[in-house]
Amino acid sequence: MVFVTKLRHQVFTGTHLTRMEEIRQNVCADFETELTEFNGADNHVHLLVNAPPKVALPKLVNSLKGVTSRRMRQEFRDLATHYYRTSRPWSGSYFAGSAGALRCCRACASTSSSKTARPDHSDAAPPGSERLFPPHYAGQSASPPA
């Protein structure tokens, strides 16, 4: 998932992002999901969330944005004063994509401006994932069935 700040304001620092990750881990635990990867910049954040099918994505997003917004404004006065009129640091939109068996490290490799990233994830796909993708996806020609 990707969340951007309202009007793409550049307001987050490394301290903000570190605390935001802790808050979002707690929210994910409440939804019985796992925050697998988190990184961000001064005006947006990237999350990789491992969620079971029973979790309603809009409800999870609403909680992630709402709880983070409320707690960050309570703990950091600079954010509260920056958003004094709207009281919402997040844009109303978000991006959510399904990664399947691929690792987020590949999908987020182009994000060079990450402030906090977890280095403990390898770039390798999980064992057995090669069965999920036909050979023509890997750039090989698929042979006709015999």
Can you describe this structure?
The chain has four helices and three strands; from the N terminus they run βαββααα. 16% of the residues are buried. The protein has one domain: Transposase IS200-like (Alpha-Beta Plaits, 2-Layer Sandwich), CATH 3.30.70.1290. Strands 1-3-2 form a three-stranded antiparallel sheet, covered by helices on one side. It has 146 residues and is an alpha+beta fold. The protein has helices spanning 14-30, 57-75, 77-82, 104-107; strands at residues 2-4, 34-40, 44-50. It comes from Nonomuraea maheshkhaliensis. Pfam families: Y1_Tnp. Residues 2-111 form the Transposase IS200-like domain.
Note the topology:
Blueprint (H helix, E strand, L loop, with lengths): L1 E3 L9 H17 L3 E7 L3 E7 L6 H19 L1 H6 L21 H4 L39
Antiparallel strand pairs: 1-3, 2-3
Please, what is the average pLDDT?
Answer: 76
Q: Helicity range of the residues? A: 25-40%
Oligomeric description of these chains? single chain
**CATH topology title:** Alpha-Beta Plaits
> So what's the overall shape?
globular
Low-pLDDT regions: 110-144
Largest β-sheet summary: 3 strands, antiparallel
Summarize the structure.
It holds the Pfam family Y1_Tnp. This protein is of the alpha+beta class.
